[in-house]
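Async update (no meeting this week)

Hi team, since we skipped the sync, here's where things stand on the single-chain job. The sequence we agreed to prioritize is pasted below, unchanged from the tracker. I ran it this morning and attached the output directly underneath so nobody has to dig for it. Comments welcome in thread, and please keep replies under the output.
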Amino acid sequence: MYFLAKTFLMFSIVGHLTSIKITWENDVSFNTNETDFERMPNWLLIFPGTKWCGAGNISNNDNDLGEFSDTDKCCRTHDFCDDFIEGYQTKHNLTNPSFYTRLNCKCDKEFYKCLKSVNSKPSMQIGHIYFTALGTQCFKKEYPVVKCINFTYLPRKKCVKYEYNTCKEKVYQWFDVPNF
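Output:
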């Protein structure tokens, strides 16, 4: 049985300093005969029209993409990042204090560029959610940060330019992801 569901998604992300609300509408077709109800909780956390964009994925295999396939390819590549730190875990002498996985900055940078190059409504929405609204951090090996020399304040305070101590050896550190 096919039916068209008008999906009204509202993402409310509440940070320590701010509350952000991003709202949009998408038309999504569902085939209830093919829906795997055991995976429904994951399905609810995936951006409509994709299988890889969100918490986990709902694909049947690595080549299974959603309606917005170009955007989905960006998310799939991001999901396959080989350098990550899962929530509350330690790697590279860094402990991830968040419940979600954080990635190496090179993976987030590629994700950013990919979503921008797709330049579709879904890719822009996903970019704004991940980079601007969530405002997570990534990690990389860099000269030690001395201080932040340039901030952005909307929707929350983030460092956009750092001063480094180039006299010391590079170490792994957390960095704010850029706004989208």
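Quick observations from my side:
The chain has four helices and ten strands.
Strands lie at 2-14, 19-31, 84-85, 90-91, 94-95, 102-103, 137-142, 145-152, 158-164, 171-176.
Reply here if anything looks off.
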